[in-house]
């Protein structure tokens, strides 16, 4: 499971590099599907990953919206701010944590019980899904998207 | 890791159901990004998943192209044909298989060595990525895409 976090982080860094070749206007442009723009998608992935980890730890999650982060530089800064805590949590993950249960209450009062192992895989799938959306928008811009291949990235040290 | 295979299979079934409400013309229409059409994306995910598993088993993989499978019914039939073998392989997966090495040769003669654990996660990420592309095309059709949420699907029995 750890390997897929490392995969997401590598792919995310490559998308930042990809963004360097695209105007800020295009990065912020409202697009069809997902959360709406390329940069907001990257922001959203950082937000969701960190927030779930914080929730598992019983700490406050991220409450800010994208308005304060409308540049590649600010999104990268946010990532650099949150990443160490996520990395530490993932590095210390072990199978005994799989079945711990997160109890949470939805806005309508519904109570949810989610095994931590599901939450971790939810974070993984969430990011890969949104990156798939970026790949379509990249082709709409006539640009080659970042490769989604997991093989060949030397990830096997992180299982 | 098994959980993410089960997640992909559930989401895939929901996309088949989603396809029932869309005309064959729209399902086959060439779109921007990915492999080009909604139905070919579903076909491609089935093909890639089964083929990698076959390669790990040292058996022949899938050589047919999409031309013979240009309907929802045919894609579902292909899935039903391949799925049992994939399910069995995934069910019998254990951590001792992580570091087995697959040696393969590319078209240009390059030799690749990939740990089996990476191959399995490559299959997972590959499908989620392509499903993210479907979600954009769904919005272009003014349709709600299938949820990508992993939580709430009762997957925790499959770790």
From TrEMBL, chains A, B:
InterPro entries per the UniProt record, alphabetical: DinB, DinB/YfiT-like
Pfam families cross-referenced by the UniProt entry: DinB (PF05163)
Gene3D superfamilies xref list: dinb family like domain (1.20.120.450)
Keyword annotations of the record: Metal-binding
Family: Belongs to the DinB family.
Name this protein carries in UniProt: DinB family protein
